[in-house]
Description:
Blueprint: H1 8-14, H2 17-46, H3 59-63, H4 66-85, H5 91-116
Helix pairs in contact: 2-4, 4-5
Amino acid sequence: MERKPEYLGDWWAIISTFEKVMWIIAIVASILFLFQMFIFYNTFLHSKEEEDDDYSLSFVETLISFKSIVVFFTFFSWGTLYAFNNIEFGIPISISIGIIAGALLSLGFTYVFTYFD
């Protein structure tokens, strides 16, 4: 019979080390992701009046930027946690699913950041 947590501290004690690491990555990356999306939204709205096209990043330069790394780790960690907990795959398959999710969404957001930033 599986032990049910009664409060958050009990839940944290029950989960495995792998899950703890993934939760820490997910929370930190999600906070950074929300912060950068807030900044992107505000600068996108206010930069159209004073647009300066002297320098813009290429797709590859944007792909290896801090923005894309944050997007990758956000969706990598949440995808891995979903696969591990809800679909109940093992650790290697869950990590593979997380890598695929992170890579696909990182490419998608890179496209958005490149052509709309």
